[in-house]
Amino acid sequence: MSNELVYKNLTPEELSDFAVKTFGKNLPSDIEEILKIIKKDQKILEIGCGTGRIGNVLIGKGFDYTGLERYKNYFDYFKKRENNANLILSTFEDFDSEEKFDVILFSWTVIGDFNFETQKATLKKTYNLLNKGGFCILDNPSMNQKYNQTKHYEPTPFYFENWKKFLENLGFKCESKLYKTKTNRERELTILVK
Known about the structure:
By secondary structure, the protein is of the alpha/beta class. It is 35% helix and 25% strand. It contains seven helices and seven strands; from the N terminus they run αααβαβαββαβαββ. It is globular, with a radius of gyration of 15 Å.
């Protein structure tokens, strides 16, 4: 997977800079959108928590947050900044939990890091990890926008319209919402309710 080469060579600081270019400074646009949907006391699992950009906003604010990260350099960076954070160094494929979650986040195009077949398995696993009434939030560029472009980065695009039937067949009630970032990019939030 060429994306793996990108993440292994992209420093936490460079990844943070990419986020600012995509979502803006201060309270980034994607976090604003997520905060409109989630509620305090919910048990949240963030897949690909990276440097803690979202986790830092949720930890200590009444959210029961767990971050899952596969790349040790980002995991260590996040852990150093949030020593008390509940973080797990693992891939989602290897993640095994008897716990159920109220919310599972695939923020900032994380679902695109999986190939098409793995995306299907990931969405099935997500359904099984959710409590009844729980939901999954996926954040991706809209069909009108390009994915971030850097050498060796080849995400597998995820667009709600292409996945709607599959998601409904899994048992999700689903909807999509477009929003503009502070850097004027159009993004799509896909919200899946179990």
